[in-house]
Design brief:
Elements: E1 9-14, H1 17-28, E2 40-42, E3 53-58, E4 72-75, H2 78-87, E5 91-98, E6 101-107, E7 113-118
Parallel strand pairs: 1-3, 4-7
Antiparallel strand pairs: 2-3, 5-6, 6-7
């Protein structure tokens, strides 16, 4: 049996859709689609389609506990990427070097954790 599934977007439940979309839009350099508001916002996917669009939907309840799914981003300049994320409003959770990978866990302005790892094809700077 063949499925006709495709990948739409990654969805974030959040308090303020437009504000959280603004953080991710700036961090990933992906524009927010027109019509964004406090309840609903979507970023464009990357032009080469290597990164999906992100959808942000306001929900009444705050995030509780650790999110079970998170984004793993990579960078050729890990310290610069971390510094940029923090300057945009992320907070640093911790640094890790395990399983042959060096990464930092951060939290976005609403507390959703994500990682930025050193690209595997490059050694840490």
């Amino acid at each position: 049996m063949t499925t006709d599934l495709g990948f739409g977007q990654i969805v974030f439940d959040c308090v303020r859709a437009d504000q959280l979309a603004g953080f991710w839009s700036t961090l990933l350099e992906l524009p927010v689609r027109a019509g964004a508001n406090q309840y609903f916002a979507v970023t464009e996917q990357s032009s080469d389609r290597s990164f999906p669009s992100l959808m942000f939907i306001a929900v009444p309840e705050p995030r509780q506990g650790k999110n079970r799914l998170h984004l793993d981003l990579t960078s050729g300049d890990l310290p610069a990427a971390i510094e940029r994320a923090v300057s945009l409003g992320a907070s640093k959770v911790g640094d890790f070097n395990e399983y042959g990978t060096t990464w930092t866990t951060l939290a976005d302005p609403e507390g959703n954790v994500f990682d930025i790892a050193q690209r595997r094809d490059q050694s840490p700077g």
